[in-house]
Amino acid sequence: QLKLEDYKDRLKKGEALNQDQLEAVEKYDEVVHNLEFAKELQKTFSGLSQDLLKAQRKAQRRESLLKLEAEKKKLRTILKVQYVLQNFTQEHVQKDFKGGVNGAIYLPSKELDYLIRFAKLTCPERNENL
Fold first, then answer.
1. In whole angstroms, what is the distance from residue 99 CA to residue 114 CA?
2. Which of 8, 66, 90, 125 is at a distance of 20 to 30 A from 110, taking alpha carbons?
3. pLDDT at res. 101
């Protein structure tokens, strides 16, 4: 653009220009218009890029929250199962299942022993002093 302005100034001063320079001066307005259009286009692309980055960050936050909720749900399920299994290690619960009383179904001793052993393997013992 500066070069074109220099040609334009030289032409106003009456200086002779070659054919290429004259053609360039004739297209000065078109070049300026194209430059302005390019600037506007660049601004638009920059804005779209910023919007895309914001949308990506928002999607990542949403995905992280969904993963966190899924992990919490898994942990809750594990804790519930551990709680149920730990109850099988208590004497009064074992008696209820051996006899099928107090809302417990009847479990043969062999199956109850399997559950008790599984509970001891999968459930860490709690320190009641903590």
1. 17
2. 125
3. 93
